[in-house]
Design brief:
Number of helices: 17
Largest sheet: 6 strands, mixed
Strand content: 25-35%
CATH topology of the largest domain: Dipeptide-binding Protein, domain 3
CATH superfamily of the largest domain: Dipeptide-binding Protein, Domain 3
CATH class of the largest domain: Alpha Beta
Number of domains: 5
Oligomer: single chain
Shape: globular
Helix content: 10-25%
């Protein structure tokens, strides 16, 4: 039993008490307390005592705790029974036994402000403020602006935009008792006003797609997007993750050199003593959180899911010169019986019919039929066959992926350009009404007959037991169908276990599918046969899985993943002959550089300084008041250039020994035309990024990999000039210096820790060498983060200054990577907070109407230009817009 003694809402910085009790009286009374976010609401246990209550008659052995609200937003407080046995509530013995009880608490701001946060130069916006805590503060608001030259505000909250830039509006309320006040910040950004004929699409708007434009046009767009990100300081490239791996003597690789996209193919080579008792032995750094691929989050889960899930189409090794070694790759049908076929619906016959005279290299279609092999089977964790996989399994899976109540994390792959945008899928997932206003159903419906959009309206159609049609929101070429359905994301889930996973939840909000061995079914070349959390995962070859024609078979009879959280521990296991491959960190590179099994793979991921460029008001509004104290210097454009030119990327390579210096977003691994295989960096447009794309672009000093200490220092001084002029900082004095502190977060391995410690020291030395402001000092504070916290706890929650980490995209689809920078977080991976992607800012000359001639330079928003290249978009006044109904 859990009692919440403070109401279901609390104000920021206030304490909220709780009480909980284990029944019956003879049970172990100890309770463990937990909060869903220790940063937002830290919890403090206060021991056992008597709870005086008119309901409970001074009952003893109640456990007490309290939370303190540090960040606005909702948190969950949970009490866990400590005893080995759990007893039912004596007042309701028919309830099922439980070991925990939870309540949700909403931490509120004392004051809320509403109104437009973006205004064009010369425009106005009316803000309104509400005092929530009327017990302590008067409902009397005063307004002020951090920079009245950018945006002023009058006594009634009317904001007037003066010039381009950002300002922070403060709303304050006086205390009812005493002389104190309480304030809240609100962000204002003043934007450029353009004439309609300067903007892509103009006032009328036009539907545009560059998805099937020439490689030259695609490279031009990629270069414009990439250079815009660099110019705006969205993040700063540092190094790419080229890696060194050593293989044991057991492994004979099937390749002479690294095959782009595919690697060295260890799982396809020869393996000595290859049987179930002698598996291929590898490792990973943490446990997978789920084997439900509709909810997978990271590369750990991805690596394992790729073994146990089928793929409709797949990239496969190819021996192009017949010398017995793989040297290339091909995209082939895997679980599909043949390549996808373009179809159209015949209203008279009521059937989907294959389109005749279709040019598979150049034509595109909105509907594609996928035919399955008739020898696909489900397999349990004992390797036993559990029935045939049919088209119905795929249709059911896609319905679950898009269910508006479950809110699966990978749903966007079924409705956005990041995957395949299925017709009406987004409308179904978001339950749009006629005005595209989203609605959140309270209860899940197994039949999908929701109020606003029903599942029958979505473009997924079963043809027969072995075929289904994907009807898309726009036309795609065949290669794109194969590419986007390769991998496990479009594989099926096992319906009986997925349904059983909802348990007794009538709302069908979440399933436990994939959470345990007996709650999952395999469909791929291996099955999960053993699982021991924090220790080991074992995959055994699926004897019921057959490979399609042209698809080489994986070699190991079994594959064993050991959980190894430390790189040095992995090296020790390799040296004890307990691993068959190991990544070599910088600390051991010299030891292994002459090893016969050593291989170096080029990097696909550009690791960058992600920068938190938000104002304090923007951070408070997006992540909650108190989430993070932002650093004003990171809002200075000149400081972004200072960081770019200050880093000695060559020295970082020397520290890492295995990584490669990188000053661009796209590494050499990305190709602009997957069919031709041309690397984007080798195109004329790709090369131009370093010199400059737009008027006034800074030369990026490619000859020194971006290192220019003198230039870095001059930009730093300009940033200080700006901050002093705005009154953000003072020049300091000899006795009281002005100190600027900036945190650098990264992974906590030895290599990454050494890198950020070097950067912290070297950049501080570079900037503090300036002489104009001798009493200003900057310090960089290294902050190594365990596990994946640099992503999940720092960047994704906006609790960082600089974070050295990276996200990569599909090597054959580089434009897809750009979705991560769309500030509406449509990818779920937005990390560059403070970057504005939705307003027109990119000037580029393109052929919008498809007549073969460019239409002159027009301004585009980053979002609109990305969407036009990734698929199709209606662009109006330079931004993504709703297309008028015909």
């Amino acid at each position: 039993m859990l009692y919440y003694l403070g109401g279901y809402e609390a104000f920021l910085d206030s304490e909220v008490p709780f009480a909980a009790k284990v029944y019956p009286e003879g049970a172990d009374p100890q309770i463990y307390w937990e909060t869903s976010d220790e940063v937002s609401a830290p919890i403090q246990a206060q021991g056992l005592s008597v709870l005086s209550s008119f309901m409970l008659d001074n009952s003893i052995n109640w456990s007490f705790a309290k939370i303190t609200g540090k960040i606005t937003g909702e948190v969950t407080v949970t009490a866990y029974a400590a005893g080995a046995e759990v007893f039912p509530d004596p007042e309701d013995a028919e309830k099922p036994l439980v070991v925990e009880a939870s309540v949700d608490v909403n931490i509120l701001s004392h004051i809320d402000v509403e109104g437009d946060s973006e205004i064009k130069v010369g425009g106005t916006a009316q803000l309104s403020a509400t005092v929530n805590n009327t017990i302590e503060y008067k409902n009397e608001i005063t307004w002020s602006s951090s920079d009245a030259t950018v945006a002023s505000v009058d006594a009634n909250g009317l904001v007037t935009a003066k010039k381009i830039g950002k300002a922070v509006i403060t709303a304050s309320a006086p205390a009812r008792f005493g002389s104190g006040t309480k304030s809240v910040l609100y962000p204002i950004e003043v934007l450029t006003e353009y004439d309609a004929d300067e903007l892509a699409g103009g006032a009328e708007g036009i539907r545009v797609s560059f998805k099937y434009a020439s490689a030259e046009v695609k490279a031009k767009i990629l270069a414009a997007l990439e250079r815009h990100l660099i110019n705006r300081g969205a993040s700063i490239p540092v190094i790419n993750n080229s890696g060194v791996v050593v293989y044991s003597e057991r492994v004979t690789l099937p390749t002479e050199k690294y095959v782009p996209l595919m690697g060295f193919g260890a799982l396809y080579g020869e393996l000595a003593d290859n049987d179930v008792e002698h598996p291929y032995r590898t490792y990973t750094t943490a446990d997978p959180k789920t084997f439900n691929h509709l909810m997978y989050k990271d590369s750990i889960e991805s690596d394992m899911l790729s073994l146990i899930e089928l793929s409709l189409f797949s990239f496969e090794f190819v021996d192009s010169d017949d010398n017995g070694l793989y040297d290339s790759y091909a995209l082939l049908p895997s679980a599909a019986a043949k390549f996808a076929e373009p179809v159209e619906f015949n209203e008279e016959t009521g059937e989907w019919e294959v389109i005749e005279d279709f040019d598979y290299d150049n034509d595109a279609a909105e509907a594609w039929k996928i035919t399955l092999r008739d020898n696909l089977f489900w397999v349990d964790n004992n390797g036993h066959q559990q029935g045939q996989i049919t088209a119905e399994d795929f249709v059911y899976t896609y319905q679950m992926a898009l269910d508006p109540v479950q809110q699966n994390s990978r749903a966007n792959y079924f409705y956005s350009a990041a995957g395949l945008p299925i017709k009406n899928a987004e409308a179904y997932y978001k339950q749009w009404d006629d005005k595209k206003t989203p609605h959140a159903p309270a209860k899940g419906l197994a039949d999908g007959n929701y109020e606003y959009v029903k599942w029958s309206e979505v473009g997924v159609h079963k043809v027969d037991d072995l075929a289904f049609v994907l009807e898309l929101s726009q036309a795609y070429q065949q290669w794109d169908i194969h590419y986007n359905t390769s991998g496990f994301l479009f594989s099926p889930v096992y319906k009986p276990l997925f349904e059983a996973g909802f348990g007794n939840d009538p709302n069908r909000k979440s399933t436990n599918y994939g959470s345990a061995l007996d709650k999952f079914m395999s469909s791929g070349p291996y099955y999960l046969s053993y699982r021991e959390t924090e220790k080991e995962y074992r995959f055994t070859k699926n004897q019921h899985y057959t490979y399609n024609e042209g698809c080489p078979e994986m070699t190991p009879a079994a594959i064993k993943y050991t959980i190894v959280k430390d790189a040095n521990a992995a090296i020790e296991l390799f040296e004890k002959d307990q691993l068959d491959s190991v990544s070599i960190p910088a600390t051991h590179y010299d030891q292994y550089k002459n090893h016969a099994g050593l291989k170096k793979a080029p990097g696909a991921t550009s690791f960058r300084f992600t920068v938190n460029r938000m104002t304090q008001a923007e951070s408070d509004l997006l992540f909650g008041i108190g989430a993070w104290k932002v650093k004003p210097i990171l809002q200075e454009d000149d400081f972004m250039w200072a960081l770019y030119f200050a880093m000695d990327r060559n020295e970082i390579e020397n520290i890492s020994k295995t990584y490669t210096p990188e000053q661009f977003y796209f590494t050499q691994a990305y190709v602009v035309d997957p069919k031709a295989g041309e690397a984007y960096r080798d195109t004329d447009a790709g090369k131009q990024v370093g010199v400059g794309i737009f008027k006034g672009d800074v030369n990026l000093s490619t000859e020194t990999l971006g290192v220019n200490k003198e230039l870095a220092t001059s930009y730093y001084v300009k940033a200080l000039d700006s901050m002093i002029a705005k009154g953000v900082i003072t020049e300091g004095t000899a006795s009281k210096k002005t100190v600027i502190e900036v945190e650098i977060a990264a992974f906590d391995s030895v290599t990454w820790t050494n890198i950020i410690e070097y950067l912290a020291e070297d950049m501080a030395a570079t900037f503090n060498a300036q002489t104009k402001y001798p009493n200003i000092e900057i310090k960089f504070i290294p902050s190594p983060q365990p596990g994946m916290n640099v992503y999940y706890e720092k960047q994704m929650k906006g609790r960082f200054d600089l974070a050295l980490a990276g996200i990569s995209g599909g090597l054959l689809d580089p434009i897809g990577f750009m979705e991560c920078f769309c500030d509406d977080n449509r990818s779920g991976l937005m990390l560059s907070w403070g970057f504005n992607s939705h307003t027109p800012a990119i000037l580029i000359d393109l052929d919008l109407d498809g007549n073969g001639e460019n239409d002159g330079p027009k301004y585009w928003s980053f979002d609109a230009l990305y969407s036009a290249c990734a698929g199709s978009v209606f662009v109006k006044m330079g931004v993504e817009a709703e297309e008028p109904k015909a």
